[in-house]
User: Which sequence fits this backbone?
């Protein structure tokens, strides 16, 4: 959707103050710790764009809260698995040898959207050191959430998701669906007999750039929309609008626990 189409679909400009009112009505409160998945275009025409959205989020939770966003960098993965687009097979070894090491300060996100990409650069934001699935965080628990992110399991109990589970975080789906709900991966990591796969990335190790191979769970988000629909039918999550965006706010721990039970019953038994 281009900017003219977004303007045509917006009755009045979306502002920091109007978004804060919408966030409060949705159920966000001061001192909340909120994992945000977002789509800027879904909001309508925002006065100040991604910067305004981030300011509204930080203002809404105040100095006692924390905003967290995924900062995944899919380019730092095994090029043999790239599909959108694929690269010629004769390029693979060059990529293994020459891909720069992940750097939390400069490595860009991929597919996270303009809000998440700007958030990683915001003053006071911390970023975890995982070369593929890092998280960014700003606020009271920012450093705690992002420190010591293990290479594997990348979405396990010691990851930022596990820490958010422990501190009682909420999840805000801002104009996106449950297929973007990263916290469901924590439920996968808790499964017994979860399949695994070989992964690779360019990273720093012992002061040198290396291509590191590792084994992790074969995470699969293909049934996350179904899990979310079932969860919504059985929980008291809050739906509402922020600007023009359809939004959902819910408890992360409650969602992960529900997903764990669902996956044990429906995926592990198939």
Assistant:
């Amino acid at each position: 959707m281009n900017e003219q189409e977004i303007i045509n679909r917006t009755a009045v400009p979306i502002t920091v103050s109007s978004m804060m009112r919408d966030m409060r009505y949705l159920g966000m409160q001061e001192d909340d710790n909120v994992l945000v998945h977002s789509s800027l275009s879904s909001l309508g025409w925002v006065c100040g764009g991604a910067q305004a959205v981030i300011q509204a989020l930080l203002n809404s939770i105040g100095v006692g809260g924390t905003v967290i966003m995924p900062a995944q960098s899919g380019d730092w993965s095994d090029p043999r698995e790239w599909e959108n687009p694929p690269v010629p097979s004769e390029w693979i070894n060059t990529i293994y040898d020459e891909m720069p090491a992940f750097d939390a300060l400069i490595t860009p996100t991929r597919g996270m959207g303009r809000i998440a990409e700007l958030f990683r650069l915001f003053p006071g934001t911390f970023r975890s050191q995982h070369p593929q699935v890092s998280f960014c965080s700003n606020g009271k628990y920012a450093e705690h959430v992002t420190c010591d992110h293990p290479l594997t399991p990348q979405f396990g109990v010691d990851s930022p998701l596990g820490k958010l589970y422990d501190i009682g975080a909420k999840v805000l789906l801002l104009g996106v669906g449950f297929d973007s709900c990263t916290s469901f991966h924590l439920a996968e990591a808790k499964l017994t007999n979860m399949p695994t796969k070989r992964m690779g990335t360019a990273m720093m190790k012992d002061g040198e750039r290396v291509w590191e191979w590792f084994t992790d769970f074969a995470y699969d988000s293909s049934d996350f929309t179904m899990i979310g629909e079932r969860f919504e039918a059985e929980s008291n999550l809050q739906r509402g609008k922020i600007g023009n965006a359809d939004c959902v706010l819910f408890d992360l721990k409650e969602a992960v626990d529900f997903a764990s039970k669902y996956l044990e019953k429906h995926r592990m038994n198939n």
